Amino acid sequence: MHSDSNTGIKTAIVTGGASGLGYAIARKFVQNNIRTIIIGRNEEKLQAAKEAFGELCTYIAFDLTNLPQIPELVTHIVEEYGRIDILVNNAGINMKKPFTEVTDEEFQTILLTNVSSVFALSREVVKTMLPHGSGAIVNISSMASQYGIPKVIAYTASKTAIEGMTRAMAVDLSPQGIRVNCVAPGFIATDMSAKALNNDPERKNKVLSRTPMGKLGEPADVADAVYFFSTEGARYVTGTVLPVDGGNSIGF
Fold first, then answer.
1. Mean pLDDT score of the chain
2. What separation, in Å, do the N-terminal and C-terminal C-alpha atoms of the chain show?
3. Residues designated as active site
4. Residue 188, SS3?
5. Is residue 197 in a domain?
6. Does the model's pTM come out above 0.90?
7. Per-residue DSSP letters for 77-116?
8. Are 249 and 212 in contact (CB under 8 A)?
9. Is 30 in contact with 54 (CB distance < 8 Å)?
10. What's 10's domain CATH number?
11. Range of the domain at 108
12. How many domains does the chain have?
């Protein structure tokens, strides 16, 4: 398998790649001849995604909150597939709850999944990128980091941290040839958002009325932005946060 580097096939890791935005990102990569390893917790969904995407896609069932096992995971990937060219930190969890009812444990759990595991995985992958002097990391933040959204305090803290980490990582790593950027999706039509918005017409109207384009985005819109950051087209771009939100973050 190691000979693939000669044929120019790149290898990407997409966390949370079996559903939602991660699924769309993985599909975009495979369509563009990038071997894609999707990591997630749900083996059934991972298997279904792999079947849909074909032989350029493989999966690893792994719980990224298991920080001590992450170095071994990355070692295994490099041994199996050769070098890692692209890392997309997409896996994340959300929780809607009134501010005063969020427990310390709940807050910590979201920070563990959305921040600590992103750091640990990035650190280990970067160690394997440094000898090659190249690589692209794309983090996924959220509208919650651009402005205040009610009842998502832990999620907001985690996604704001991701944007700060993106800038810090870019400054640390870009001199060594590793670019780090971030995509901040607005309101995108996924199963998760559909459930949230269709049961809450008032919230849906508010979302659409402050989105200048007047509609929800598609997962493919986010995937296209991630693909751009991952490839040669973005060779002089690092440390940026790109809202893909129909203008929502600047909407009135």
1. 95
2. 52
3. 155
4. strand
5. no
6. yes
7. HHHHH----EEEE---------GGG--HHHHHHHHIIIII
8. no
9. yes
10. 3.40.50.720
11. 4-187+218-243
12. 1
